[in-house]
Amino acid sequence: MSDEAVRVIGGGLAGSEAAWQLAERGHRVVIHEMRPVKQTPAHHTSHLAELVCSNTFKSTETTNAHGLLKAEMRALGSMILQCADAARVPAGSALAVDREVFAADVTARVESHPNIEVHRGEVTRIDAPCVIATGPLTSDLLADAIRERLGVGALAFYDAIAPIVSRESIDESIAFAASRYDRETMEGAGEEGSYLNCPMSREEYEAFIAELIAADQFHGHEFDKVPYFEGCMPVEVAANRGVDTLRFGPLKPVGLADPRTGKRPWAVVQLRREDRHGRMWNIVGFQTRLRIPEQQRVLRMIPGLAGAEFLRYGSIHRNSYLNSPAALSPHLSARDDAKVLFAGQITGVEGYTESAATGLLAGINLSRILSGLNAEIPPPATMLGALYRYMSEADPAHFQPMNANFGLVDDLPHVIRDKKRKREMIAERSLAAMAEWSETYSGAVPNAIG
Ligand SMILES: Cc1cc2nc3c(=O)[nH]c(=O)nc-3n(C[C@H](O)[C@H](O)[C@H](O)COP(=O)(O)OP(=O)(O)OC[C@H]3O[C@@H](n4cnc5c(N)ncnc54)[C@H](O)[C@@H]3O)c2cc1C
């Protein structure tokens, strides 16, 4: 094995996990963390893997998407989850931690690993082999270097995320499939059209706008103030400009007739297919800062969405993230160098668990590449493999960050009506697939220590 040290840039959740996986496979690793020499606007300590906001990694139940992802990570030997278990505080079935104990433990384990050195200071250039895991608040100089390397449009600085609902939760006796004026706007759309349309009467629309404006919002952090431009304005801000603003904007009914009446509705909420299989549907134009219970309450007023199951909630944040389907390879490396990998929130995943999971796989894959093997992605029957598939195959024109959810994974071969049983069967299949993948591809390489 080469004596060249691997650089891991960013000592957050993804970077710490990636460094650990590389070190455990016998590679010398230098992890570069800019704190405390240079702070981010959200972190407060010099610990590695500081949790900047909530203290929970969410559910541990495998019938929950986050729980399933964690079970897969455990099968791959996640160090971050071992530290989380050791710092666990009571929170029912959620894995919540004492954030101070957790981050101190990650820092101590990483610093004391014989194969890892921790350098404190900002990195401003990209040198292979490396894992870049600098997170949603990547420093400006490194962001410039990434844009220079991958292309100016590759890195966004804010997200404006619209909610996604599952297809099976949309009431098809109300929502109808059609594109405006029957014109397809999306490659690969089926004969019935690219969109599902939720028609509103005048009374339904006006009641909806009144609740949307009055709903409780998350106001974010001071640094999180987004300079809204028309394409990413929160739907509640647009609604507040006047009762008809949305009806002349994303909810315009033109070119659409409700098949139940043959007439043009007063307003139409459109849902756009988010994945090739049509399991996930994005509520077009509904980027929002409403609090999650308010999103559930208000958006379920939309005709056809009364029983909506939310696979992703809307949000708007300061967030540096790559347009991964356009800019990266399937294992999330630069297209011109398989040894420049990206991991964590900067790749367009969303959340603590997802970020650590991509760090884990980046560590395994960079180790494989440095050992002369190909990068490998777990099958899409697993939550981790499905997340990677999304990052590589999502439509680059509409790419927004994504969290773990069951809309990402392949369907079972036959229909199961009982939702809980269906989730259990998906989880059993995922864990079996991950065990097999791990056995074949993730193992320690020759010369590994420990
Ligand atoms: C304000 C805020 C609140 C959030 N709340 C939540 C939440 O409650 N739950 C949740 O699941 N997710 C939350 N997130 C998202 C969260 O940041 C990610 O889920 C997770 O921290 C991402 O892990 P990461 O390793 O990719 O990035 P981070 O954990 O942010 O780690 C990146 C590291 O890179 C370092 N760095 C940046 N640039 C450089 C450079 N040039 N050189 C060297 N080091 C550098 C940073 O100092 C940082 O330590 C929040 C994000 C923000 C900004």
- Strand residue percentage: 15-25%
Biggest sheet: strand arrangement: 6-2-1-7-17-16
Sequence stretches where pLDDT stays below 50 over 5 or more residues: 185-192, 445-450
Rounded to an integer in angstroms, the radius of gyration calculated over CA atoms is 22 Å
Overview of this structure, please?
The chain has 450 residues and is an alpha+beta fold. 31% of the residues lie in helices and 17% in strands. It is built from twelve helices and 17 strands. The protein has a six-stranded mixed β-sheet, covered by helices on one side. Flavin-adenine dinucleotide is lined by residues 9-15, 32-35, 40, 42-43, 52-54, 122-123, 133-139, 142, 221, 344-346, 351-352, 355.
Task: Give the gist of this structure.
The chain is α+β, with helices and mostly antiparallel strands. The chain has helices at residues 13-24, 65-75, 79-86, 99-112, 140-150, 202-214, 235-240, 292-299, 324-327, 352-370, 383-393, 419-442; strands at residues 6-9, 29-33, 56-59, 88-89, 94-97, 116-120, 130-132, 155-161, 164-166, 176-177, 195-200, 267-273, 280-283, 310-312, 315-322, 333-334, 337-342. The structure holds flavin-adenine dinucleotide.
Short descriptors:
disordered C terminus, binds flavin-adenine dinucleotide, six-stranded antiparallel β-sheet, 450 residues
What is the topological layout?
Blueprint: E1 6-9, H1 13-24, E2 29-33, E3 56-59, H2 65-75, H3 79-86, E4 88-89, E5 94-97, H4 99-112, E6 116-120, E7 130-132, H5 140-150, E8 155-161, E9 164-166, E10 176-177, E11 195-200, H6 202-214, H7 235-240, E12 267-273, E13 280-283, H8 292-299, E14 310-312, E15 315-322, H9 324-327, E16 333-334, E17 337-342, H10 352-370, H11 383-393, H12 419-442
Parallel strand pairs: 1-2, 1-7, 2-6, 7-17
Antiparallel strand pairs: 3-5, 4-5, 8-15, 9-13, 9-14, 10-11, 11-12, 12-13, 16-17
Helix pairs in contact: 1-10, 2-10, 2-12, 3-4
The structure holds flavin-adenine dinucleotide.
Residues 9-15, 32-35, 40, 42-43, 52-54, 122-123, 133-139, 142, 221, 344-346, 351-352, 355 line the site of flavin-adenine dinucleotide.
